[in-house]
Specification:
By secondary structure, this protein is mainly β. Strands 1-5-4-3-2 form a five-stranded antiparallel sheet, with no helix packed on it. It contains one helix and five strands. Strand 4 and strand 5 form a beta hairpin. It has one domain: Beta Complex (Metal Binding Protein, Guanine Nucleotide Exchange Factor, Chain A).
């Protein structure tokens, strides 16, 4: 519903170059995921997903430059079964 298109990027391959001072976070449910958003505009540009604890999930819609992506469907309603299929 939020229009979020996930790009999974290893922590070592990601650098936030600006805006860290405006980031806010929240956790819900299991508390395993850390959801980050801009406290000024509310956009969720990246977050720490519970499905990939070693990586960030970047919102493709927030990139300054276009990248070619292959989109894989993920059933978020049946999260545990969908996560098991990733392994």
């Amino acid at each position: 519903m939020t229009g979020y298109v996930h790009i999974i990027v290893a922590h070592a391959d990601f650098t936030l170059v600006s805006g860290a001072d405006t980031m806010s976070s929240y956790r819900f449910g299991t508390g395993a995921a850390e959801h980050l958003f801009c406290s000024r505009c509310g956009v969720k540009s990246f977050y720490q997903p519970r499905s990939h604890p070693e990586a960030w999930s970047i919102n493709a819609h927030c990139l300054d430059e276009a990248v070619e992506l292959t989109v894989e469907q993920f059933d978020g309603r049946d999260w545990d079964r969908a996560k098991a299929a990733l392994d």
